[in-house]
Amino acid sequence: MHWDPTYHTNSKALSCNPNTPGTQFGMYGDYHCDPPLLLLDSAVKAMYNIKSDVDFLIWTGDDTPHIWNDTILNKDVVSAIIGNQSTILRQMFENKTVYPALGNHDWSPKNQVPPRSDQLYDTIAEFWKYWLDDEALVTFKQAAYYTMMISNKLRMVVLNTNLYYDSNKLTEAMPDPGNQLQWFDDLLNTATLHNEKVIVVAHVPPGVFEKHRNKHWFYPYYNDLFLFLLKKHSAIIGSVHMAHHHTDSFRVHYEDDGTPVTSLFLAPSVTPWETTLPDVMGGLGNNPGIRLIQYDRDSGRVLDIHQYYLNLTKANLDSTDQWLLEYNATSYFGVPDMSPSSLHDLAEKMKDDDQLFSKYYKANGVLYDPDERWVEEMRIVHYCAAVNMAYDRYDECIRSMEAVSGAVQDISRLKVFPILVTYWLVSLLMD
Ligand SMILES: [Zn+2]
Description:
By secondary structure, the protein is an alpha/beta fold. It has one domain (37-389): Purple Acid Phosphatase, chain A, domain 2. Helix content is 38%, strand content 14%. It contains 12 helices and 11 strands. It has helices spanning 37-50, 75-92, 119-128, 134-143, 180-193, 220-232, 312-318, 329-333, 340-350, 354-364, 376-387, 391-430; strands at residues 57-59, 98-100, 146-149, 154-158, 197-201, 237-242, 249-254, 260-266, 289-295, 302-310, 323-328. The radius of gyration is 23 Å and the shape is globular. The model is unreliable at 410-431 (pLDDT under 50). Zinc ion is lined by residues 62, 103-105, 203, 244.
């Protein structure tokens, strides 16, 4: 959500990009800034109005504004912001369980989420004790990960992947920060014995950012270990839900023989904030998004995603917040469900089908700029990121796709050549 408490309609808030033009800002927010409380309230009310009687809620983290320096955004401010948003969710969804994950911005100094107990973990645990059981609170206070049963046979596992983020200097070159990987492996071994299925939630995803040629988040060593565990336990992992990119995308993980075994979903953000990351390809921001996930209660697999959005420009112009259905994933993408094999087929089809990729691309930015054009290089990066979360495989994918795409360009140049020759001959004959 990235709430900016300093947001004001007639002055530049602290989270606004330095190049923000003008001094007037929309009541529901601005693409250059993190959002006002009004937008957060609006998003949570829209969630309630769309469907109040849900099984549970997933909150994928990152609650404080960008850019703030760490002196302003100290631990007291961070905990106050997380506390306020926890209250908003608790009051709106009174009797529902929210499974929150900690984001890299839910800390001070930002990204430095520690692999050991800390007073701030204890403070956040106080906000979340209404949702988390005693056992979950114990591990949360150790390093911000936990597990709870959703039902008899379906388990929620919330991980603190900020420990693997390469901006986190506290966890560089550790064998297993917070002992989380060992805990995750042991937990899923036991879950397998008990015939349970699992839904995994975290903030920072493994793999590569699909809007950038060379941007990944995990230290390479942790990326490998994490992907190894996802593959090892793929038989019981129904789905994985993460965030951090602010974009709407998906990832597929595979067995060594190429069988697609895991679906990983990247949910778009409520904040419309345009990224300041250098060399991002395409639009920098997004419209605020929320999603309703239809899932199989036995397996934890995702059957469909109902993605909703707020057209921020229109909301500000009309002074009203009308959240609309952006798509139902199955009918929008023409797939039977969101299983690993369906997502694999979708990714493979997008490689050649311009219209299908355009639909995915619009959704990727939550209709931020529906007229935006993409170029082949962007499609290659989106595709390779979606089907290769291992860094070396992603690099190999880019290399081979660009070799093919280069060959295609060469052929099209050859097609032009005979036409030019013909034209030249015709010109000669006419002379
Ligand atoms: Zn983040």
